[in-house]
């Protein structure tokens, strides 16, 4: 039996999506080890460990290969020290699966990194569509003082792999506050991937 067509209303201010099949929240306490400033993270944890950093509303019509997953990401504004709030970030478990993000509200960045360690940073704004190509690690950053809300769409069989970033000590680039704006700085903990690990990612097929 075919899956029935559906439509879903997005509230750009909250990211609330009508008739989702799932939603989850990430609280600060679940995001240990992501930020550079450990003392600032400990202080923020003591003060607001229960607070939500981001929430995802999603629709997964079916898990079938060739289907889509789509929904919204709502990110609170905030910083740990000088570093803006980010999502955990991932490469797709099937690394050659792409994704699109569309700005609904707020100001932010899509921070992307190739397997070889090249960084690409694209601004996300309302009515801006960002394309994350196959094989690129991606993480969203809220650089504004208001919530960043984006809608997204990616293949249903993509999956998320968080281990690749963890093994490298994070992504190569961090996004810090700079006056009223932002700046990209090298992550001092970053360890470039080995040729073997890069080759294994690039070999992803199907
Ligand atoms: O999974 P994270 O890196 O924490 O990012 C949170 C979420 O961001 C977006 O909504 C993506 O489309 C999701 O696939 C992802 O899970
Ligand atoms: Fe993704």
From TrEMBL:
What Gene3D superfamilies does its record include? Answer: Jelly Rolls (2.60.120.10)
Task: Identify its protein family.
Answer: Belongs to the archaeal-type GPI family.
Organism, by scientific name, is Kaistia geumhonensis
Q: What is this protein called?
A: glucose-6-phosphate isomerase
Q: What class of enzyme is it?
A: isomerase
Q: Which domain of life is it from?
A: Bacteria
Asked if the record carries the keyword RNA-binding, the reply is no
Q: List the keywords (alphabetical).
A: Gluconeogenesis, Glycolysis, Isomerase
């Amino acid at each position: 039996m075919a899956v029935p067509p559906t439509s879903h209303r997005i509230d750009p201010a909250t990211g609330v999506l009508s008739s989702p099949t799932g939603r989850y929240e990430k609280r600060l306490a679940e995001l240990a080890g992501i930020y550079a400033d450990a003392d600032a993270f400990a202080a923020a944890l003591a003060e607001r460990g229960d607070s939500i950093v981001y929430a995802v509303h999603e629709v997964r019509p079916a898990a079938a290969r060739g289907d889509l997953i789509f929904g919204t990401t709502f990110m609170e504004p905030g910083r740990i020290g000088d570093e803006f709030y980010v999502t955990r970030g991932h490469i797709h478990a099937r690394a050659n699966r792409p994704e699109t993000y569309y700005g609904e509200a707020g100001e932010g960045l899509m921070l992307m990194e190739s397997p070889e360690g090249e960084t690409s940073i694209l601004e996300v704004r309302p009515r801006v569509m960002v394309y994350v190509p196959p094989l690129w690690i991606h993480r969203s950053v809220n650089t504004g003082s208001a919530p960043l809300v984006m809608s997204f769409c990616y293949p249903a069989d993509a999956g998320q792999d968080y281990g690749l970033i963890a093994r490298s000590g994070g992504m190569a680039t961090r996004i810090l506050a700079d006056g009223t704006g932002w700046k990209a700085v090298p992550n001092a903990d970053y360890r470039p991937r080995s040729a073997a690990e890069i080759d294994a990612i690039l070999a992803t097929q199907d």
